[in-house]
Amino acid sequence: MVATGTSAPLVYITGASSGIGQALAAHFRAAGWRLALVARRVAETEAWCRQQGWPEDSWAVYGADVRDTDAAVAAGHACLARQGLPDAVIANAGVSIGVDTAEREDLEVFRTVMDTNLLGMAASFHPFLKPLRERRRGTLVGIASVAAIRGLPGHGAYCASKAGVVSYCESLRGELRACGVRVVTIVPGYVATPLTAGNTYGMPFMLAPEDFAERAFRAIAAGRSYTVLPWQMGIVAKLMRMLPNALFDRLFAGRGRKKRLGE
Fold first, then answer.
1. Catalytic entry in 12, 158, 168, 190
2. I want to staple 193 with a disulfide (CB 3.0 to 4.6 A). Which of 19, 35, 137, 248 is the partner?
3. CB of 145 within 8 A of CB of 158?
């Protein structure tokens, strides 16, 4: 029997309308957690929750585009007022769009990626920091990417944003260690989601969203500070980091670029 009362733990997940966010929501709910879901497509996300047959008092959806700092902060405060202080906050909302810095319009795309993936994470965490510090318990989860490890051709904005996520979460971890709030960084490799569906290059060790969610749930529950999923991509990432620049550049010179907006 899955718990539904207010005594059940609460998880707050951004980017919950599809892909990794939706898979995380389903896994946490199956484990007995209440859900606070943030999505741009509110009606669609609410319809999905009802399709799962979940009791209405076990979930709530808050509308926000995390690029809009005020909207992201307001969603967090709405959750506090309606459902209380979450036990875990997962900043998952993200976009992946190729950029060419030589093209003026791509500078705006670069801004969109950074605002969504990095600033949007900080805005998502912000409403909960002070109450979590006061309670001295809870977990903040940042969803990064193995793209944070090395810069890939055509992925400049995405790689930069995810490298920023790793450093930002590391900074937060040091800031919050003394007050008992854990910071967990999850570093996915390739997961079969709409973000990866249009990629034209090889994607080794790809996970189904449900498999990713199960492994991420275990890492979050254990409070692991940094976890690459799947573990095979952790080995690949370490090897990539060790490669001399000249060899790395030759190996990836012919790799397909991430599609630019509109391609």
1. 158
2. 19
3. yes
Residue 65 located in a structural domain: yes
Q: Domain of 183: which CATH number?
A: 3.40.50.720
Whether 108 maps to a domain, the answer reads yes
In this predicted structure, what is the pLDDT of residue 152?
Answer: 83
Q: Is the pTM of this model over 0.70?
A: yes
Judged by DSSP in three states, 80 sits in: helix
Q: Mention every residue, 6+ apart, whose C-beta is less than 8 A from residue 185.
A: 141, 142, 144, 165, 166, 169, 170, 173, 225, 226, 227
Which amino acid, residue 31? A
User: Catalytic annotation on 158?
Assistant: yes
Domain count of the fold of the chain: 1
Give residue-wise pLDDT tens across range 69-122: 999 999 999 999 999 999 999 999 999 999 999 999 999 999 999 999 999 999
Asked whether residue 2 is assigned to any structural domain, the reply reads no
In a domain, 177, yes or no: yes
Per the prediction, the chain carries an average pLDDT of 91
| C-alpha distance across the termini of the chain, in Å | 47
